[in-house]
Every structure is written in structure tokens, then in C-alpha cells.
Design goal:
- The protein is of the alpha/beta class and 278 residues long.
- It contains six helices and eleven strands.
- The strands form two sheets. Strands 4-5-6-7-9-8 form a six-stranded mixed sheet, with no helix packed on it. Strands 3-2-1-10-11 form a five-stranded mixed sheet, with no helix packed on it.
- β8 and β9 form a beta hairpin.
- α2 runs parallel beside α4.
């Protein structure tokens, strides 16, 4: 059965101030070189503090350029900030200047690609609920990309923030795409029969289903957070997600920890650029 492999990485938090993140990134680069996937997708928080430090964005871009495979990216809150009014614990909010800086360094903050028999659509989740011109432009673009008349190809969505709250978790907008944007996006995905939704942001691994779609939380390639700072919802581990997308619409999803990629906890055995976490 013809298929294509896509590697999804997330929350690499690359910076000259995060040596463990860079060491683990070396393992990611080696894994991509050894396996040669059709595509690598970064699901956001590429940098440590790119929303405030241009040097972090540029450092992260140089690290991504080492990947010997085609690449697509979407930003996370550490890259561009969060939508105004969302209390994510960060001091910065997304604005046109920060978004423009990200686009100058990485290119577009969204993508739509054909990989084998599948369509992959990546969105800028940080725009959801922003009430900005850029958010309106993304909704217009999504309306075209997620139009059921586009074709029967199975579809996977990539977003930094998860869409659907995990069982027992609170649907807070700092973790999930906020309402009503979430409901609007889920309506578009339901209409087109999306098969997969892959996200990052939480630094935990989790998988659940909704309306026939599999929702996958990708792990961080850098470090998890201590339990007394972040309650476990899924599994706290480091790694990446491998998607084997079959032309018949089936997909195999696996969480991998490549050789040399260590499991760290921020502020415990990995340097925290945000100061003491305890």
C-alpha cells in the first residue's frame, strides 16, 4: 500500500540559552537524516522566546535549516505571543509586528500541502480569537482550504494548540483553541471529514478521538514540566510523532524517541531560561 511518512516535532524551544534543547535537536536531525521522511512539520514553539528576542528566532531557524527533508512550520506562543486577552502566563501578546517578524524569518505562518494521497493543512493557532485582520484573512483562507468540494483526499490538520479538551481537563484558552473559534474550526473539519488533528503546546503525549478524527498531542523535543507546575493529563515524555499516511486514507501514528534524545524536566535537569520553576 503506497504511503508517505511525515515527522511532526513540537516545542523544541531552541535558543543559545537552552543547551539541552539543542542536544536533543541534534538527535532529531540525525533521525531525519537516517529515515528520510517525505516531510517534517514543526507544530510551534520552535524558539524559546522568539516573541521577544529576534536572536532566538534566528537561532531556531538555523537549527531547522539543518534538517535534510522538506519542512513546514506553524508558530507557537513562544514564537509570536498569544492572542490579546488570553492569560497564558506570558508577558507578550500577538500583534502585527511580531507576526511579521516570524514571517520574515520562517516564511508563512500557515501551509497547505499534498503529501502522497493526503492533504496537510497547518494553521496559526495563535491568531484564533485575536480579532485581527490577520485572523480574518486566515479564516477566509481556511474556508477555501477546508471546502468539501476541493476533493476527496483525506485531510490532517496541524495546530500548535490542541482543539478538543482532553477528558478531565479544563477547556482553558491558554491551552486550547478558544471558543467560539474552536467550534467554528471543528465545524469546518467535520464538514470535510478530517482524519487527523496533530498539535503540540502541552509537552505531553495524548491521543483521543472525536467525530471520527484522531486528535494527537505531539511531545516536546526539549523538556517536560514538573508535575507541581503542570498537572499530568497525558504522558510526560520527549520525542516526536511519526505519521505513516496511506493513500487509502488510513494512517499509522507512533510516538518515537530517537537514539540520543533524552527525557529532561525543565528546571530540574534541563536549564530553564525562564528562571526557577519552583
Amino acid at each position: 500500500m503506497p504511503s508517505a511518512r511525515v515527522i511532526v516535532v513540537s516545542d523544541s524551544h531552541l535558543s543559545d540559552r537552552t543547551p539541552e534543547a539543542s542536544a536533543n535537536w541534534d538527535a532529531v536531525v540525525d533521525h531525519v537524516a537516517a529515515t528520510r521522511p517525505a516531510l517534517v512539520v514543526h507544530a510551534g514553539d520552535i524558539s524559546t522566546d522568539g516573541a521577544e528576542r529576534l536572536a532566538d528566532l534566528e537561532f531556531a531557524r538555523a537549527q531547522l535549516d539543518r534538517l535534510p527533508a522538506p519542512l513546514a512550520v506553524v508558530p507557537g506562543n513562544h514564537d509570536v505571543g498569544d492572542a490579546p486577552g488570553i492569560d497564558s502566563g506570558q508577558a507578550v501578546s500577538l500583534d502585527a509586528e511580531r507576526l511579521g517578524t516570524f514571517r520574515r524569518v520562517f516564511g508563512a505562518d500557515r501551509f497547505s500541502l499534498r503529501v502522497g494521497g493526503w492533504r496537510l493543512v497547518g494553521i496559526d493557532a495563535q491568531l484564533m480569537g485575536a480579532g485581527s485582520v490577520d485572523e480574518a484573512d486566515q479564516w477566509e483562507w481556511l474556508g477555501r482550504e477546508l471546502d468539501p468540494s476541493v476533493g476527496p483526499a483525506p485531510l490532517a490538520l496541524v495546530t500548535h494548540k490542541p482543539l478538543v479538551p482532553a477528558a478531565g481537563d479544563t477547556a482553558r484558552p491558554s491551552r486550547y483553541v478558544p471558543r467560539p473559534a474552536r467550534d467554528r474550526l471543528l465545524g469546518l473539519l467535520d464538514a470535510v471529514g478530517a482524519r487527523l488533528v496533530v498539535s503540540g503546546h502541552v509537552h505531553q503525549v495524548l491521543r483521543h478521538t472525536r467525530a471520527g478524527a484522531t486528535h494527537v498531542w505531539a511531545p516536546t523535543t526539549w523538556a517536560t514540566l514538573p508535575d507541581d507546575i503542570q498537572r499530568p493529563v497525558g504522558d510526560k515524555t520527549t520525542g516526536l510523532v511519526a505519521l505513516d499516511l496511506h493513500d487509502d486514507g488510513a494512517a499509522d501514528v507512533a510516538t518515537l524517541s530517537p537514539p540520543g534524545l533524552r527525557s529532561y524536566t525543565a528546571g530540574v535537569d534541563a536549564v530553564s531560561p525562564y528562571g526557577p520553576l519552583h
